[in-house]
Automatic annotation (TrEMBL):
One of its GO terms (molecular function) is microtubule binding. Its main location: cytoplasm. Keywords: Cytoplasm, Cytoskeleton, Repeat, TPR repeat. PANTHER family: REGULATOR OF MICROTUBULE DYNAMICS PROTEIN, REGULATOR OF MICROTUBULE DYNAMICS PROTEIN 1. InterPro entries: RMD1-3_a_helical_rpt, TPR-like_helical_dom_sf. GO terms for cellular component: mitochondrion; mitotic spindle pole; spindle microtubule. This is Regulator of microtubule dynamics protein 1. It comes from the Eukaryota. Belongs to the RMDN family.
C-alpha cells in the first residue's frame, strides 16, 4: 500500500472546503407538462381541462418550491457543520431523480464517514454509499459539475478498499471527472484546487513508487510541480483566499520548485489565514513548521 500514499492524501483534499452549489434545477417546460396532460387524460371540456391544468401547475410549483426549500436547508446545515442532521435530511431523498439532492447526499455521506466517532466498518459502508449516490447523480445529470466533482472524490475514497492496482487505475478516471467539472464550471475553485492536488501527488511520487506503478500500468499517471502550480494559482485567481489549504499548497509547490521567495510569501499567507476549522489549524501548524525550515 505504500505505493499509493500520495493518493490517500488526495482523498482528504476536499475535507474542509466550502463548496459551491451546482447548477439550477432542471425544469420541464410548461408546454411539455400540458402535452403530457392531453395525452394521458380522457377527452375534457376546455373548462375542465383548464381547471385541471391550473391545479397541476400549482402542484408542480409547490413541489419545486419545496425542493428548493430543502436544498437551502441542506446548504445551511452544511455551512454550519451539522453533518449528521444534514445526512438524515438528505437520506429522505435517496431515491430522488434529481442530481441536486444526490450529489449533496454523496457529500454528506462522505463527511459523515470522516467523523472521529465513526468506526472503520461504518466508514467503509458510508464511503461506498457516497460513491453510489455520486454515481446516481451523474447518471441523472451528466452536465452537473458537482456530480462530476463528487464522483471523482468518492471514487478516490473507495479505491482505498480496492487494492493498489484499482487505486492507481481509478486515478485516470478521477482526473477526467475533475477536468469535466472544471469545463462545466470554470469558476469552481475547489475543483481546480483538487486537480492541482492530483498533479502534486503524482509529481512527488518517489522513484520506487513510480516503478511499482509502471509494473501495474504501461503508462502510469504522471504530473509535474509546474502543472500543479498552474492549477493552484488558477484556483486563487478564480476565488482569492478561498481556502487555507490552497495557500499552503502554493507554498509547498514553490518550495519544490526551489523558489524560496514565493514559497515564503504563500506560506505566510497560509499561516495568517483565520484558523476556523480543524483543517485550518492543521494548515497553520504545517505552514509554521515549513517557515521555520526555510528560515533556517
Amino acid at each position: 500500500m505504500a505505493a499509493v500514499s500520495p493518493l490517500r492524501a488526495l482523498t482528504r483534499a476536499l475535507s474542509g472546503i466550502t463548496r459551491r452549489r451546482c447548477s439550477a434545477f432542471r425544469r420541464s417546460s410548461a408546454s411539455a407538462r400540458n402535452t403530457a396532460i392531453l395525452v394521458t387524460l380522457p377527452p375534457l371540456s376546455y373548462l375542465g381541462y383548464e381547471t385541471l391544468r391550473r391545479v397541476y401547475c400549482a402542484t408542480a410549483v409547490f413541489a419545486l418550491d419545496k425542493a428548493e426549500e430543502v436544498i437551502e436547508q441542506a446548504d445551511y446545515l452544511y455551512s454550519c457543520g451539522e453533518t449528521e442532521k444534514l445526512y438524515q435530511l438528505l437520506l429522505q431523498y435517496k431515491d430522488s431523480d434529481d442530481a441536486e439532492f444526490l450529489w449533496r447526499l454523496a457529500r454528506a455521506s462522505r463527511d459523515l464517514a470522516l467523523l472521529p466517532n465513526i468506526t472503520a466498518d461504518q466508514k467503509k459502508k458510508l464511503s461506498y454509499e457516497a460513491f453510489d449516490y455520486a454515481k446516481k447523480a451523474l447518471e441523472k445529470n451528466e452536465n452537473c459539475f458537482a456530480a462530476h466533482k463528487w464522483y471523482a472524490v468518492c471514487l478516490s475514497d473507495v479505491g482505498d478498499y480496492e487494492g493498489v492496482k484499482v487505486k492507481i487505475g481509478n486515478s485516470f478516471i478521477i482526473k477526467e471527472h475533475l477536468e469535466r467539472a472544471i469545463e462545466l464550471n470554470p469558476k469552481d475553485a475547489t475543483s481546480i484546487h483538487i486537480l492541482g492536488y492530483w498533479c502534486f501527488a503524482f509529481a512527488e511520487l518517489p522513484w520506487y513508487q513510480r516503478k511499482v506503478a509502471a509494473v501495474l500500468f504501461a503508462s502510469p499517471p504522471t504530473a509535474t510541480y509546474e502543472e500543479a502550480l498552474v492549477f493552484f494559482l488558477r484556483a486563487e485567481e478564480v476565488d482569492p483566499n478561498f481556502y487555507s489549504k490552497n495557500l499552503l499548497m502554493l507554498g509547498k509547490t514553490y518550495m519544490m520548485l526551489k523558489d524560496q521567495e514565493k514559497a515564503l510569501l504563500w506560506l505566510k499567507k497560509a499561516r495568517d489565514y483565520p484558523a476556523i476549522t480543524d483543517e485550518d489549524k492543521q494548515v497553520h501548524k504545517e505552514a509554521l513548521d515549513l517557515l521555520k525550515k526555510l528560515n533556517g
